[in-house]
Amino acid sequence: MGTVKRIGWRLLLMLPILALVSVLAFLIGVLTPGDPIEAQYANRFTAEQLDQIRATYGLDLPLWQQYFVWLKNVAVDGGGISIVLGVPVFDILGPNFLNTLILTLGGVVACVVFGMAIGATAGIFHRTWIDRAVMLIVQIGSNLSIYWFGLVLIIVFSLQLQWLPVGGMQSRNGGGFADLLAHLVLPSLAAGLISMLVLARFVRIGIIHEVGTEHFKTFASQGIPRWKLYGKHVGRNILPSAVNITGLEIGTLITGVIFVESVFNWPGIGTQLLNAVNGKDYPVIQGGILLVAACYLVVNLLTDITVDSLNPRLRRA
Amino acid sequence: MADLATAPKNASRLVPLPGRRPRTVTGRNLQVGVALVIIAVVVLSSVFAPLVAPHDPLLSDPASKYLPPGSPGHLLGTDDQGRDLLSRIIWGGRTSLLIAVVAVAFSTVVGSALAIVAGFAGPLLSGLIMRTVDVMFAFPVIIVAVALAALFAPGPSVVILAIAFAVIPYVSRVVFAEVKQQKGQDYVEAAVSLGAGHASILFREVLPNVTTQIIVYATSLVGGMVVFASSLSAVGIGVQPPTADWGQMIATGARVVISGNLYVALFPGLMVLIVALAFNWLGDGLRDVLDVRQRSGAPSRRKTGDAGADGRDTPVGAAGPDGHADASGPAEEVPR
Amino acid sequence: MTASAPRPAAVAPQPGRRPGAAAVLEVAGLSVSFEPKSPGSEVVRDVGFTLSAGEVLALVGESGSGKSVTASAILGLLPRPAQITSGSIRLGGDELTGLSQRGLSAYRGRRLGVIFQNPLASLDPSFTVRNQLGEIIRHHRPGLGSGARNELAAEWLRRVGIGDADRVLRAYPHELSGGMRQRVMIALASLAEPAVLIADEPTTALDTVVQRQVLDLLHEVVTTRDAALLLITHDFDVVEHMADRVVVLRDGRVVEAGVRSEVLQRPRHPYTKLLLSSVPRLGAAPAGAGRGAAQPGADAGPPPGTGSAAASEGNPGGTGSADAGRPGRVTSGARTPLAGPADPADLTEPNDPAEAADSERGELLTVRDLTKTFALGGLGTGMPRREFTAVKDVAFAVRPGEAYGLIGRSGSGKSTVARLIGGLLPATSGSVVFDGHQITGSGGAALTRLRPRFQYVFQDATSSLNPRLTVGEQILRPLRRFGLAGRGRAAGRELLEEKLALVGLPAELGGRYPHALSGGQRQRIGIARALALEPELLILDEPTSALDVSTQATLVELLLDLKHRLGLTYVFIGHNLALVEWICDRIGVLEQGALVDEFATDDLYDDTRAEETRALLAANLSTRKAGTP
């Protein structure tokens, strides 16, 4: 099967998932107890006026029609109108979404860089005290609450050492790229924590496995230096699964990002979503869920394609 | 005579030889002992919280705000409303542990059932279940939690359901892989040949081989879920104030960190970490005690069917006698 | 191609050390331990030998003998906890022990090459052959340009008998066959023209036909360059075929060493004698306990019609009149009517005229046009769906009291046939009839009632036993299922003792879990469990292939003895011709799922044998000795 065909299949498989998520997101708006319109406007309008408002939101139609009206709203009209703020949902989520994307990217970088480094250290020094020490740290790290870890980072690096800013995305008087980076360091570390440790364990086990393989021994027995063996044979053989894991970890990472936004006051989509939950602003919740789910699926697709292209068995099949 | 071949190799695996092994074994025992003590203390003090806690966890006292740890009457100090931190941590254990244990128990039962059904069903049903699980597997849990919080009001039930969504795919995958592996063993075919029916094979042959694995896995999950639940509560979609809950306490503490009162958030966070580690260690210890890997994971030579590969002797440079120590794979990680 | 040519004449014209040949590898007093701090824990103890240029030295031993650890020690590739505790390893006069990895790397490849056991795994799956050979060449001869590197690699591939070197260079390892990969591996290890080549079970994972080609090639590559070969093996056939001198290891110690002909023909140590007597040889069953002695009614051959006599008597427990009066049948008293299905008369009544004819012809098992097709790939796997026919129109018949052998190389479908006749796999088409009853197509209760009468013994005894149940429970559970054992504990214990005694195991093993048993014991349990139901037919799927030779020999003797005592019928699956010849009365040869030849064992050397059979014979390393009639 050709690469194009495989990607086509994957795209096709994405559609039902996206449809399912959209139905679920839509149902959130319908199934919630209480009438959001009434909750928001009852004190200001008469019953007829409320019905009119319902009609503008399409809430008087049968359920399946409401779904398509809602889908159209999402696709064409910027995700509907926020009940609380009265502006199109995507106008609210848009800028925040970009901020979340920046933080997620920071998380991925932290995950890959530190995950690889930690895993490689432990794997290369397997069966020594270095491995044991690193793995103890990994075990402790894996049991840290991201929220609390972020807090500890703030206490240590911002409040005590005063090396990095406490929170937010920019200094009060603005600032350039360096300023953004400084603000990005701690949240990225916190957001990527769990994923980087998962990746580290994978890399470690991958290295231990590869070093035990006969092909590793083949090249070792020919006197090829260790660093070359690790760099070429081990590295190339664990790469596909490392990429795969990183891709799978995007979901965890997004969860981490949203926790972290809350700790660091990062003006992202997570903060918006959590506010919307408290304010029962359903259009925003629905739009946000759909947006994140779609992004997640796209990332997954990209990961799959990358992993496939790294597999010699598929490349030539 | 028959022993001649395998004796030396097996001996090093089955009978702990003097020297290397005992050290690790005592190390493990110590770890499990510590874990059991921690869990016992936390569970007992949560159960008997009304008797153990020195103060009412909800009683605020504006006169004694931000008392530092070690203050008379307040061993761990007080928070922004003058509530006793120790008492709140003891009471908080109730909510936090209960949520995690209930959620994990529920997910384990559902996840295992799904996996076992998938393992024994035809390809169509099996495929449907496992593909659904795949989709759930890496999906961002937070999105589900937000959706649930929007549907129901934020609270413990949201946390439990979110955990279930997060954990069921993991449990299913682990158990499914185990069931598949067991089903591939010849003893299942042997049972067929010896006249066993489907029910007998499932309940009397395969299930005994996967239950310990399930128990061990569930145990190690509890810790992680205490952590995850605390994060959900901290961002406001879990347990709501003023109920004492570790995550809730961390969030409260986070607001006063800027003013220099660090310990309000530090203590509950440390508690979460310690309890989570204890459950992890207990899981590891159980794995060793119940010997899951060694008994069920015997390497099979039958993979190639006809191959005359007698894989005799350890191949040159193969791993030593305890190469199985690294079996716990990252597939057993769960988001926090 | 040189591989199939007869072994080069250069082979040790004068076995043993050639006069004047320098010792290239000297190992003395070598001890290795996985727990260096505890004395007495050595897995290799005081091992010593020397290897001269142009010589092949075989290091022979069963599993756990320390032969591979010795090789790892020489290479400096011991796994981390293991250490050399004493002794010296000198390569061309230079001491290797105590050298750092960096120090050792000067010797690796250039002076010391290795070929590993598993050709499927010894090349890196992620790189092409060109890339991998190129890496080795660049390492040893840094000055060479890429064109010259390619040329050298291609030249070596041609030297190891690969005709289309260009294609192989471009290929990834998974695109090559096992034998091909081992050739590439030999080229890779020889590229730097090392003085010593170590081969660790280089052909264990290969088919017999390929095995011989690879061994001959290895011999040629080594001897033409006047290099030395240290061959690690468990297989005395390989030793006999290749070695100039032999070192026999047991439990990490050298028990015997000497020139090949001396050791093989006049072994001094009892262990060596035992090992040698255990090796199945074509045309000569070891220890004189071949099938001839154990075959029921050997003098007359299995008389046709005996099976139907037993069957029409409505006596499924009996196994034919041929040994009805045999005094040696110890368990004949134990065969109560319980042994059969609930209603013997109902079951033994042939229900189809054609099948009735089978029983009349005296066939216990009749296989007709048996075909099995597997579907691969399909929806959701990312691979196009295609079908693979593992077994194609196979037909044969087994008479009561007979041992029928099915032989073939890996992938020939022999295990699939075994599973089909064992009722473990549904057939795609064709039929398997056991004593007048359809096995194929019949399911549920009817098949279950029939099951006690034909039983299966698996290749991998470890996997065939449930790790969570005691051995006793595993034997008794089926007995209870078929109402052959009471629920009482005392009665169960007695029954268990009897069943274990049948396979020569003490009763107390019944309380153990499988992991507390040795490989040989596990396989005996597998046999005891199958025999407990008192079957007439035993399907033996390579029951000894995972065992050491000496264990294999005792197990085969047990099987022959059981067949004789209980009047059993065997279908024996195997890949080792000598072993199958030892056990079986008739042999069927499978090739790519089809039965290509079938003959009485005595006709094995007939000129009328099919090409595939002769190929198997030719590949057998010990054929020369057997001497064709």
From TrEMBL, chain A:
Domain ABC transmembrane type-1: 97-303
Record keywords: Cell membrane, Membrane, Transmembrane, Transmembrane helix, Transport
One Gene Ontology term, aspect cellular component: plasma membrane
Chief place where the protein resides: membrane
Membrane topology: Multi-pass membrane protein
Compartment(s) where it occurs, according to its Swiss-Prot or TrEMBL record: Cell membrane
Any Pfam family hit: BPD_transp_1_N
Taxonomy, superkingdom: Bacteria
GO BP terms: transmembrane transport
Annotated transmembrane regions: 12-31, 101-125, 146-164, 184-203, 242-264, 284-307
Family that this chain belongs to: Belongs to the binding-protein-dependent transport system permease family.
Protein name per the record: Glutathione ABC transporter permease
UniProtKB/TrEMBL annotation, chain B:
GO terms for cellular component: plasma membrane
Segments traversing the membrane: 30-53, 97-121, 133-152, 158-176, 214-239, 262-283
Subcellular location: Cell membrane
Keyword Transcription in annotation: no
Membrane topology term: Multi-pass membrane protein
Coiled coil: none
Swiss-Prot/TrEMBL keywords: Cell membrane, Membrane, Transmembrane, Transmembrane helix, Transport
GO biological process assignments: transmembrane transport
Keyword Membrane: yes
All residue ranges annotated as the ABC transmembrane type-1 domain in the record: 93-283
Cross-referenced Gene3D superfamilies: MetI-like
CDD domains: TM_PBP2
Feature: compositional bias, Basic and acidic residues: 303-313
Segments for region (Disordered): 1-20, 295-336
Homology family: Belongs to the binding-protein-dependent transport system permease family.
The protein, known as: ABC transporter permease
Organism: Sediminivirga luteola
UniProtKB/TrEMBL annotation, chain C:
Short name of any one Pfam family annotated for the protein: oligo_HPY
InterPro entries per UniProt: AAA+_ATPase, ABC_transp_ATP-bind, ABC_transporter-like_ATP-bd, ABC_transporter-like_CS, Oligopep_ABC_C, P-loop_NTPase
Top-rank lineage group of the source organism: Bacteria
Keyword Transport: yes
Keywords: ATP-binding, Nucleotide-binding, Transport
MF (Gene Ontology): ATP binding; ATP hydrolysis activity
Gene3D superfamilies referenced in this protein's UniProt entry, alphabetically: P-loop containing nucleotide triphosphate hydrolases
Family: Belongs to the ABC transporter superfamily.
Name by which UniProt lists this protein: ABC transporter ATP-binding protein
